[in-house]
Amino acid sequence: MIATATALFRPLLQWGLVPQIVMGIIAGVLLALLAPTVASDIALLGQLFIAALQAVAPILVFVLVAAAIAAHRQGQPTHIRAVLLLYICGTLIAALIAVAASFWMPTELTLDAGQVDGNPPSDIFSVLRDLLLNAVTNPVSALMEGNFIAILAWAIALGLALRQAADTTRQALQDLSNAITRIVTLVIRLAPIGIFGLVAGTLAESGMQALLNYAQLLGVIVGCMLFVALVSNPLLVYLVTRQNPYPLVFTCLRGSAITAFFTRSSAANIPVNLELCRRLKLDADTYSISIPLGATINMCGAAITITVITLAITHTLGIAVDFPTALLLCVVSALAACGVSGVAGGSLMLIPMAASLFGIPTEVAMQAVAIGFVISVVQDSTETALNSSTDVLFTAAACRAQEARRA
Fold first, then answer.
1. Tens digit of pLDDT for each residue in 262-296?
2. Alpha-carbon gap, residue 182 to 175, rounded angstroms
3. Measured between alpha carbons, how far is 64 from 53 in angstroms, rounded to an integer?
4. Using alpha carbons only, what angle is made at residue 298 by residues 18 and 230, rounded to the nearest 5 degrees?
5. Which 3 state secondary structure label does DSSP give 84?
């Protein structure tokens, strides 16, 4: 029986991960259309997949960053400063593009959605204060709660402390890092089954009509992210490398963005990005730190989401937005997006804080957050794909620029 099933599915198992995911999506759509009741039960597969990613991602980031820093030796060249500068510039430019698109295609919302539970921050100072407090949270609690800002802070501290440790200790930490990476890789290999359950359950519960109701809002968000991925990010890469950026851009999109789109987790996509960096023959001392770091703080997609939905609220309420305030919104969105993993609810929960710049009550802004959750099946996937692929793109740009200078 088992041998027969194995022989039946062997051709499918020999396909790559992306074709398998596509088959999972098609199967999920068909099941939701033909047997919605069964599809609702199959949703458990998707929930298990997401739960596994959420469980292993925090410890992955912690161990990877600590091991990379502990293994680094004084005098070894890295390009972390250049990568960080690209992360910051990319996030600010993404927010500016979102403002321009929102003025060009003003979107109005029907703010009658149900309330969403949560405690959004009231201003940017609250966000910065929360970031500082989150950074010194108990490390065990941070791992349990998925507080990536604290995880990153403690991992850096542990890595620096272990740089003077015995070689056997640092090797043990590296072995642990490799083992956890293999576990995450195994979980990602189960993505076709998880995506099948997610698609079937989502369509059975809400159907496509839920997305069609907010097609323009979703179109502006996704359009901005595509523009950043295909125009502004390549321009940044060209300015840094002085080379045609598109071969590298498409390599990163193909090798990183596709898996990140379906897993919806930048942290879980770290092993994919590390392998892509290895294939690109980048500096290991750089990407072993910049990739986990980018999964935590490089959030250009989140900056777009915050900006577009906030300006959609202002258009709906008839609030005039002048250029200085829009520029301030860009800065706020960029800063908030960098710490989005330290705020409960992700980028959507930062919308009320951004909306407060225009005097919009939290009760109204939270209705827009509810709409954000409706479209998150596409918005969050696209946001993660942009964030994760940009980590590799900017790391590669910084490494190649330094190689060109040495040559």
1. 777 787 788 889 999 999 999 888 888 888 888 87
2. 11
3. 16
4. 55
5. helix
pLDDT at 9 (0 to 100):
47
At residue 6, the 3 state secondary structure works out as helix
Tally the C-alpha atoms within 13 A of residue 73's C-alpha that lie toward its C-beta: 4
Question: For the CA atoms of 92, 97, 103, 105, what is the dihedral angle to 10 degrees?
Answer: -140
Q: With residue 372 as reference, give the H or E element that holds it.
A: helix 362-406
> pTM of the full predicted structure?
0.75
Residues present in the chain in total? 407
Which secondary-structure segment (H or E) carries 175? helix 167-189
The answer to whether residues 271 and 291 touch, using CB atoms and an 8 Å cutoff, is no
Half-sphere exposure of 334 (CA within 13 A, CB side): 20
Question: How far, in Å, CA of 300 to CA of 308, rounded?
Answer: 12
Tokens encoding 131: 């970031």
Q: Match 């802070």 to its residue by tokens.
A: 153
Maximum Cα–Cα distance across the chain = 69
Give me the torsion for CA of 48, 51, 52, 54, rounded to 10°.
Answer: 160
State both tokens at 364.
């109204």
pLDDT tens, position by position, 325-335: 777 778 777 77
Measured between alpha carbons, how far is 156 from 141 in angstroms, rounded to an integer?
17
- CA dihedral for 232, 233, 234, 235, sign (positive or negative): positive
Q: What share of the chain is helix, strand, coil (3-state, %, to 5)?
A: 80, 0, 20
